[in-house]
Specification:
The complex is a heterodimer of chains A (about 110) and B (about 110). With about 110 residues, chain A is an all-beta fold. In chain A, about 0% of the residues lie in helices and about 50% in strands. In chain A, the strands form 2 sheets. In chain A, strands 2, 4, 5, 6, 9, 10 and 11 form a 7-stranded mixed β-sheet that branches. Chain A is globular and about 40 Å long. Chain A starts with a strand and ends with a strand. Chain B is mostly beta strands. Chain B is about 0% helix and about 60% strand. Chain B is globular, with a radius of gyration of 13 Å. Chain B starts with a strand and ends with a strand. The relative contact order of chain B is 0.36. The chains are: A mainly beta (about 110), B mainly beta (about 110). At the A-B interface, strand 4, strand 5, strand 9 and strand 10 of A face strand 4, strand 5, strand 9 and strand 10 of B.
């Protein structure tokens, strides 16, 4: 089944404890992206990647890192999480030159 | 910055009625897309309208685009309880980067 998977789906952590949220897609898509969703703000793009080893900042990149060593994986790294990073995170992918994005199921992160 | 502002923020209708959601955006777009999100889950693409199109249909969905007013509307006809969800517009600009609106929460009651 063609899909975008994220792990973990739920995570409660404490301020300053490094964490990684994984994202993987099995559709051979070049483009991958991370969003955060907060009430009243919709989805805001954190980082995106046009292909392997090519990443760029979105609208709200502060406090996040990403890497794209393989085409299928695009992990989101929070080196020192803070409470304002408590949010619902979505990974998405699409082929280059194609408009529709395919979203993962989301990761609900709480930073205490 | 947010591309889209959606109106209304919340909408409650009876099953069988039509639901209309509006979206305004700020900058130039290549296309505008609508997505649906069931509570706490991932977004699902519904329909795309290109900047040179004015209207598009897909099943019970009808989308319009007015580039002079930088606005779009999504009409769901003959709504069903299963249509209950949040609906987001997303403008695709340079590089096809998507910028999402704040969403409309639709509730369809039996």
């Amino acid at each position: 089944e063609a899909q975008v998977t994220q792990n973990p789906r739920y995570l409660i952590t404490v301020t300053g404890k490094k964490l990684t949220v994984t994202c993987s897609q099995n559709m051979n898509h070049e483009y991958m992206s991370w969003y955060r969703q907060d009430p009243g703000l919709g989805l805001r793009q954190i980082y995106y990647s046009m292909n392997v080893e090519v990443t760029d900042k979105g609208d709200v990149p502060e406090g996040y890192k990403v890497s794209r060593k393989e085409k299928r994986n695009f992990p989101l790294i929070l080196e020192s999480p803070s409470p304002n990073q408590t949010s619902l995170y979505f990974c998405a992918s699409r082929p280059l030159g194609y408009n529709e994005q395919f979203f993962g199921p989301g990761t609900r992160l709480t930073v205490l | 910055s947010q591309q889209g502002e959606e109106d209304p923020q919340a909408l409650s209708i009876q099953e069988g009625e039509n639901a209309t959601m509006n979206c305004s955006y700020k900058t130039s777009i290549n296309n505008l897309q609508w997505y649906r999100q069931n509570s706490g889950r991932g977004l699902v693409h519904l329909i795309l309208i290109r900047s040179n199109e004015r209207e598009k249909h897909s099943g019970r969905l009808r989308v319009t685009l007015d580039t002079s007013k930088k606005s779009s509307s999504l009409l769901i006809t003959a709504s069903r309880a299963a249509d209950t969800a949040s609906y987001f517009c997303a403008g695709a600009g340079g590089g096809n980067k998507l910028t999402f609106g704040t969403g409309t929460q639709l509730k369809v009651e039996l």
